């Protein structure tokens, strides 16, 4: 379930993703790139760690732009609220360049301090979901009051890429915004953590995944490849596997992914 943040937060927060009431899990899960960063509030007993690391139970995790995908060991009951940020949302909120937490998934206290643990504890004690959303809104609104605004050119570039569903060249993007490629790339690395080209590729991948979730026939992969702006089905398969580690056919076979870009292996 997705819930909208306070209207004053829409420049920074895309939505709140609620993952609750699920069966206990015990196994590997894959999180692949979707162009967003976020905060994961762990309100129950779930243990999580990157593949090869020791499992740990933290009340809040923070993740930056994902290079391709993270394999995460997940055990316990999932009761999460994920603050899915706008691609450029983290930098104005916390002042940390996007490039510094690129491809990172770590306890939020490492950057946000003990205050984020207090928020997580308050969320766990809240009596219902509306109260939890109110707590999150208030915490984030305090940050917005203290921080600078998002870069307008980066926001416009992201909006343009989203409108084109990722099927846009960097040259077309710089012409539309009247900005040099070098300047746009520098701004993206600071505010988002990846280049405009990589962000567009990830957005295109995300739209193709949405199309696969809606498709009825297994013979529709070629159509999805062309609809998503790939040269052909082979190009689509190669790009999809590069970012997710699995083929489109394997992704489509997933019965109940936890989210569009988060699924059990």
From TrEMBL:
UniProt GO MF annotations: DNA-binding transcription factor activity; sequence-specific DNA binding
Alphabetical keyword list? DNA-binding, Transcription, Transcription regulation
Q: Which residues form the HTH araC/xylS-type domain?
A: 152-254
- SUPFAM superfamilies, per database record: Homeodomain-like
Pfam families tied to this protein: DUF6597, HTH_18
Entry-linked InterPro entries: AraC_XylS_family_regulators, DUF6597, Homeodomain-like_sf, HTH_AraC, HTH_AraC-typ_CS
Query: Gene3D superfamilies, from UniProt?
Result: Homeodomain-like
Instruction: Name the PANTHER family on file.
Output: HTH-TYPE TRANSCRIPTIONAL ACTIVATOR RHAS, HTH-TYPE TRANSCRIPTIONAL ACTIVATOR RHAS-RELATED
Protein's name in the database: HTH araC/xylS-type domain-containing protein
Source organism per entry reads Niastella vici
